[in-house]
Amino acid sequence: MKLIIATIRPERLEAVKEALAAVEVFRLTVVHCQGFGRQKGQTELHRGREVALKLTQKLELQIAVNEDFVEPTVRAIQEAGRTGPEGAVGDGKIFILPLEDCVRIRTGERGPEAV
Prior knowledge:
Layout: E1 2-8, H1 13-22, E2 29-35, E3 43-46, E4 49-52, E5 56-65, H2 70-81, E6 92-98
Antiparallel strand pairs: 1-5, 1-6, 2-5, 3-4
Helix pairs in contact: 1-2
């Protein structure tokens, strides 16, 4: 089992959800977050003055998958999360982490069956 954590642009969420559904991944958690990388954040006009916010709005997707679904999930996020054919700075990142265990609260099932 793996935990896939992807940080994407908020406007790409619907496209990513559709791409995930196409590879039969239907369970995910979406977390609103802020951050910056190469974009160095953003500026905003506040009371007539430009203010550096330094943080950009992003969405973090958390998806637990069994081994067979890792590569299709990563490809779906990468293709649907990219802006334009070449992508752009700020499109996000995908992290793949080992998932030691999973427990379904309702039934008590553990491991791959609970994912």
